[in-house]
């Protein structure tokens, strides 16, 4: 799972007004898809707002407590699965996707297999996609308005309770795999999603069919066994949740399986056969910053809070916070081969002001058969 945070909405212009002259909606739908590609999206599709079966799946998932500390998932109720309840008057959802895999990035498996390096999910290596995609969606809305006049719309990119994967599937952009990530037959799964809710009665696209078959590679490879059944993810065990959404202590039994993954996890995507079709990102801002596609753990652990804030400005990594960053790296250093440089780095943080950081450093030191000074 990629982390989700609800942000203030920009690019909003919801009105019940309809165009004064009825457009050719079929022609408009074709133009919207063309404009979307011109704006840098890989693909766009259009769906209706009926998500009844997905709503039942969501409610069952929440009832099982798989959302962990993400209480906002439950607080939003059915607004997530009923677009016209979230935004009254919504008739259609224009879903878009944008490829994010930066070309020239260090190979993911090489980094994961280097226990002295820190693994950052490939989506988070460069600029945070939220604002970039919302701005592009706003431009798409402006092109529509330029063609037909005023209409109702609202742009979302993880900015509200939206079942983005179900909507994208219904718009023909891909199917939801057993790991709960959207998969496209021509592009794998390394892409972001965004939506434009609208009151325009556009023709809808055919939903994508599923093509996972009997494959269960994503289930078997998950380091923490977070995919508890096909299409069923227990976020409380997911490394993306543990390193990003969770603000407290990481359960001890999950620390060793995390390996060197310090922000997110891609294993279920890396093993997916469909990602042999993955497309490189065309957006230069998604290129890795500060060599984060394979930087050494000791170097990253040495960042001061000022350095962390400066170097992660405009990046998704900022969301874990400085204490979370140190917590995650402490776990990875606990899993790294024992060496003088690793031990020295951990001992330097043993008396950190944060109790959470101290706890994880102590765990890591114990893994290297050392104790922090206060326990010596």
From TrEMBL:
Q: Which domain of life is it from?
A: Bacteria
**Keyword annotations:** 4Fe-4S, Cobalamin, Cobalt, Cytoplasm, Iron, Iron-sulfur, Metal-binding, Oxidoreductase, Queuosine biosynthesis, tRNA processing
GO molecular function list = epoxyqueuosine reductase activity
Question: Which residues are involved in binding [4Fe-4S] cluster 1?
Answer: 212, 215, 218, 272
Supply the Pfam families for this chain.
Fer4_16, QueG_DUF1730
Question: What residues bind tRNA, as annotated?
Answer: 247
Q: Which cofactor does it need?
A: [4Fe-4S] cluster; cob(II)alamin
Keyword Calcium on this protein?
no
Annotated binding of cob(II)alamin, by residue: 80, 158, 182, 193, 240, 265-266
Cellular compartment(s): Cytoplasm
Annotated metabolic or biological route of this protein: tRNA modification; tRNA-queuosine biosynthesis
Q: Which reaction is catalysed here?
A: epoxyqueuosine(34) in tRNA + AH2 = queuosine(34) in tRNA + A + H2O
Main location as per UniProt: cytoplasm
Give the co-factor note.
Answer: Binds 2 [4Fe-4S] clusters per monomer.
PROSITE patterns in the cross-refs = 4FE4S_FER_1, 4FE4S_FER_2
- Which EC number(s) are documented for this chain? 1.17.99.6
Q: Which residue ranges does the record assign to the 4Fe-4S ferredoxin-type domain?
A: 200-232
Ligand binding ([4Fe-4S] cluster 2): 222, 238, 265, 268
Q: Where is the active site?
A: 158
- Quaternary structure per UniProt? Monomer.
What does the protein in this record do?
Answer: Catalyzes the conversion of epoxyqueuosine (oQ) to queuosine (Q), which is a hypermodified base found in the wobble positions of tRNA(Asp), tRNA(Asn), tRNA(His) and tRNA(Tyr).
PANTHER family hit by this protein: EPOXYQUEUOSINE REDUCTASE
Family membership? Belongs to the QueG family.
User: Matching NCBIfam families, A to Z?
Assistant: tRNA epoxyqueuosine(34) reductase QueG
Its name, as the record gives it, is: Epoxyqueuosine reductase
């Amino acid at each position: 799972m990629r982390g989700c945070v609800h942000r203030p909405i920009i690019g909003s212009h919801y009105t019940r007004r309809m165009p004064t002259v009825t457009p050719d909606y079929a022609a408009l739908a074709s133009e919207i898809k063309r404009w979307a590609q011109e704006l840098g999206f890989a693909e766009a599709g259009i769906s209706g707002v009926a998500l009844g079966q997905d709503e039942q799946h969501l409610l069952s998932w929440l009832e099982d407590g798989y959302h962990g500390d993400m209480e906002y998932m439950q607080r939003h109720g059915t607004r997530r699965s009923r677009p016209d309840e979230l935004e009254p008057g919504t008739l259609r959802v224009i879903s878009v996707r944008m490829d994010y895999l930066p070309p020239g990035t260090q190979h993911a498996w090489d980094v994961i297999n280097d226990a002295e390096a820190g693994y950052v999910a490939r989506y988070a290596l460069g600029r945070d996609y939220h604002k970039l995609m919302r701005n592009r969606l706003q431009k798409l809305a402006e092109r529509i308005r330029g063609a037909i006049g005023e209409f109702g719309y609202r742009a979302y990119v993880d900015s509200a309770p939206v079942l983005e994967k179900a909507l994208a599937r219904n718009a023909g952009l891909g199917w939801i795999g057993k790991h709960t990530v959207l998969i496209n037959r021509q592009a794998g799964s390394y892409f972001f999603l965004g939506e434009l809710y609208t009151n325009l009665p556009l023709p809808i696209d055919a939903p994508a069919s599923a093509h996972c078959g009997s494959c269960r590679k994503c289930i078997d490879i998950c380091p923490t066994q977070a995919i508890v059944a096909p299409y069923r993810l227990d976020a409380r065990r997911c490394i993306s949740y543990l390193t990003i959404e969770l603000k407290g202590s990481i359960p001890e039994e999950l620390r060793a399986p995390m390996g060197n993954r310090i922000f997110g996890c891609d294993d279920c995507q890396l093993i997916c056969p469909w990602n042999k079709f993955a497309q490189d990102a065309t957006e230069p801002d998604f290129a890795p910053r500060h060599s984060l596609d394979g930087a050494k753990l000791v170097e990253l652990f040495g960042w001061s809070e000022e350095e962390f804030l400066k170097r992660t400005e405009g990046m998704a990594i900022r969301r874990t916070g400085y204490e979370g960053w140190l917590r995650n790296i402490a776990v990875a250093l606990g899993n790294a081969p024992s060496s003088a440089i690793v031990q020295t780095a951990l001992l330097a943080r043993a008396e950190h002001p944060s109790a959470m950081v101290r706890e994880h450093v102590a765990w890591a030191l114990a893994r290297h058969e050392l104790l922090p000074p206060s326990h010596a």
